[in-house]
Amino acid sequence: MDEKGRPFAMLEEDEIDLIELYEILRKRVRFIFGVVFICTAISVVYSLVAPKTYRAEAVIMPFSSGTSTRTLLAALGNLGGALGGVAGIGASASPEQLQFMALLNSRTLAEKVIERFDLMKVLFEGEWDKKEGRWKDPKRPPFLEDGVKGLLSHMEFVATKKDPTIKISAEFRDPRLAADVVNGYIDGLREFVNSNAFTVAKKNRIFIEGQLAENKKELLEVGKELNAFYKENRVSDVESMVTVPIMDTDTTPPLDLYLGPQGSREAMWSSLEERKEELKKRLENIKVVKDVPQQVYLRYLMLRQELLGKLNTLLAQQYELAKIEEAREDLAFQVIDEARVPERKYKPKRRIIVGVAFAASIFLAVFGAFFLEFIQGAKERAKAMETSR
Fold first, then answer.
1. Lower Cβ count inside 10 Å, N or C end of the chain?
2. Who's near 183: CB < 8 A, 6+ residues apart?
3. Cα dihedral value 223, 224, 230, 231, nearest 10
4. Angle, alpha carbons 132-135-140 (nearest 5°)
5. pLDDT tens profile 304-329
6. Is there a cis peptide before residue 348, judged by omega within 30 degrees of 0?
7. Segments of the chain assigned to CATH 3.30.70.1130
8. Which CATH class is domain 54-199+330-337?
């Protein structure tokens, strides 16, 4: 009896007999070599016949900035997808990497690249008739949505953890096309960032810029009013009064007269009538304050000019600060390595294919040998049982 109380006879039956295994393998050696040879030969033929695929790669580095959490997704408002499901993002990826990975995996950017290089004919090569220059089934051409999925299957975007860079790769049978697609992604990314990445600081700068332009316009208008007042009036606090317009609800510019050399008298008269009606409408919409002393009106114009001047100085300062803040928050990246036309194929990797096929065929052949031996033994035992009966 052994330590567990089992009889030694049972122990010997349960243990694996290495000699018996060796005899099984030696008995099935032809079968094993045959399987290994056939699988290896198939892998060699496949590696030679399989179409060559070329891989182009570029590396970009997003700029570090002071972007806050609330503006992290500000540039992604026009995208059709979200951050969920974006592949190639590590747990320790920086906020800038997250932003650019979302942009690279977006449907918007993929559609622009497809349209730029006319990739639908490449992605659905089997459905395109090169001789006729049209789809084989004009009634059912491939959808752009399927083209986006097909293009993304050829692309790979990886945000590295060691340094704040992103690798952009493309695999195609045409090496030049692979490089063009990668560089096309970079161009599209740069165009999108420059045109659509509106951060809070950029919106603030645009608003202040508009206010500054309006204030300058008003300041110049007040200067013109002061100049006209000095030319036309002698300032007096006693008797001289002026009528001051305070609001014009109609901002439509007055109608210009048609006085061209080819104009007839009827056309000129029509233009005059239209101008007359236009001026009547403008006068009806103007509200005025009557009998304002000239000195009071002069002080009003000077005070308004002074206030507009101070406001202009304040807006100019705020505009410069907004431009600095915008430069800090803008999405930006630098191309570390541009995609070049690959000279060597990326796939198929013949050595790996043949090596994996050889190792897998050995395992399959050995398993098959033992399985055949088991089947043969079962048949012999069944035959022996029938004979004993």
1. C
2. 58, 338, 339
3. 160
4. 150
5. 888 888 888 888 888 888 777 766 65
6. yes
7. 54-199+330-337
8. alpha beta
